[in-house]
Design goal:
This protein is of the alpha+beta class. The protein is 28% helix and 26% strand.
Amino acid sequence: MNLFIEELEEHQIGEYLFNEPLSKHTTWKIGGNADLMVLPQGKEQLIKLIQLLNKHNLPWTTIGRGSNMLVSDKGLRGVVIKPGKGLDYAHFEGNTVTAGAAYSFIKLAVTAGRQGLTGLEFAGGIPGTVGGAVYMNAGAHGSDVSRIFKSAEIVLSNGELVTYYSEDMNFSYRHSIMQEISGFVIEATFELAKGDRQHITAEMARHKERRLQTQPLQMACAGSVFRNPPGDYSARLIEEAGLKGFQCGGAQVSELHANFIVNTGQATANDVLALITHIQGVIKERNGILLIPEVLVVGER
């Protein structure tokens, strides 16, 4: 690790933090420490960082805004990469927009709408980054990333820079090829369409109002915990089973939305995992359906 740090400094790759609490970097406000967190400030730095990690054979994990992620109480070994401000950008050209991995997906939707571009309305309530949205094929309101995705620049684990197009991404429900390979989305380009600015703004406002009424956005949470099973909704199954408000330690099934688990103040990752397991067991017994978590569980167990 010492040689790796020396090369980080030599190449001026960005800020780095030892034993950084990951609870500061996740929307659940849960997680142990990262051995080392590196914040590359631009594309070239990120590519060089991946090359150095490969050279020194160090394990690495990426984190954006930490939504849709549960970090274990023991934290993450190796290196955690968190893109810095140099990867927080969006460039519009005609009907397309290219955005860096660290750019807010919500901000991208709002900015596109203001420019009279339609296609990103569904993203107005997805609290992650562009990189995370592509990784998860994030979606809502009947649409998802795959519907507007054009291409992405990706750095592979060996440091090679490649471009993947829509047909390369293996998109499916909450899935992309990024979950199968070791790589990092540097930036993505989306194909939008001209639309009526007022109509787009009104639709996004309706979505926002519904979220405020139905989701526990004032509490520490990570969005929907389970994927919807075919032809049904996880929230409906969980609510029907009487699990709203059920609690394991500091983790609680939201009283507002049954597919959200909230941190009531002192929840641990083990609390959340215990609650997830309990929910799965109840629904499996009642309905014969195994609910599959949508959140990514990472870290030493």
